[in-house]
Amino acid sequence: QISCDRSHQNYDICSVNGPTTLDPTTSTFFLVDPAPASAEKIRPYPRKWENFVMQRIEEVTISSGPSSPKCEVQHNVPALVFSVGGYTGNFWHEFNDGFVPLFITVHSIFPNQEIVLVIDKARGWWISKYAELLHAFSKQPIILLDNDTATHCFTSATIGLISHGYMTVDPTLMPNSKTFVHFRGLLDEAYSHGRIRNRNNSPSTRPRLMLMSRRGGLGRVILNQVEVKRVAEDTGFEVTVFEPTPKTSLRQAYALINSSHAMVGVHGAALTHSLFLRPGSVFVQVVPLGLEWVAEVCFGTSAKAMGLDYMEYKINAEESSLIEKYNKNDTVIKDPVAFRGKSWSDAAMNIYLKEQNVKLDLFRFREYLKKVYKKAKRFMDKGEG
């Protein structure tokens, strides 16, 4: 009655196919079975290949034997167990390693079924931030594995989350052919209940553009952001500069972005807010030197999968702050792929992700924005608000 699938690169997943009791104080599920006692251990986080992170994920034990602890809280539904103890606090990872795999797992194993979410390492701020989205997955009270002390009984349990890769829902692997569009629909239900929320009482004649902002010290800052905003306004956009913080309400962020016609931002975790754009709107990812592949897998794939008009503005060497530190003929500048090699070393990540800022060529970017404007205006004129 205990089955584990450890054949995947991204994740392990185990199931208890029958009544089971959870003792949260030892992170153990007990299954009464007259057969000889046995146990399985699993770290329920879908980055199995990444040892550094997986070492921080606590093991959950599944034990079968002749007895189990007395049940104190009865749930007449299954449990789904996962950890958020990996890259918690990084907005992209919270979706890539959490909510997208959660969506896949729920629709693969528990379609149209109530479940109880049992979550390890979920801090109070995390539960508060994502309360509405978690509620869209399950109406049942959440069990916090590292805070609870009562034993809980379930009709069955699944431990671990299924991942299809970076920001991907593969419909060919889904029993009900769900796609990334369906995941986007879940976000819509969680944060707007299917309603488009326009910020303006009176309709604007100018397409609304969201300019994503990053502070200094993180890298990938637009150094001439004030001028870029002015150029976008001159092109015809109504521009809002959006700089999310850990305390930014996701409902407010959703309302703001969901009512926009275009978004522009430099590659970074905050571009995960592109999930809040309506299908058909324009999403421009500014791609710094050396980040072409990571830009595509982090945001390009999901943008195209959910029907955004996705565009990339790949900067020239002269638009990168690295040109001030390295010679233009240096491999760092001239051939980032060759410099990086086959894997992202810490040194390469620091150079391209943390040391690098961008100063956009205003003439070149203005010409690019004219194309963006045409697409955004067309989207707006379709009566999309």
UniProtKB/TrEMBL annotation:
One of its GO terms (molecular function) is pentosyltransferase activity. Residues 91-284 form the Glycosyltransferase 61 catalytic domain. InterPro entries: Glyco_transf_61_cat (IPR049625), Glycosyltransferase_61 (IPR007657). It is a single-pass type II membrane protein. This is Glycosyltransferase 61 catalytic domain-containing protein. The keyword Transferase applies. Keywords: Glycoprotein, Glycosyltransferase, Transferase. One of its GO terms (cellular component) is Golgi membrane. Coiled coil: none annotated. It is found in: Golgi apparatus membrane. It comes from Citrus sinensis.
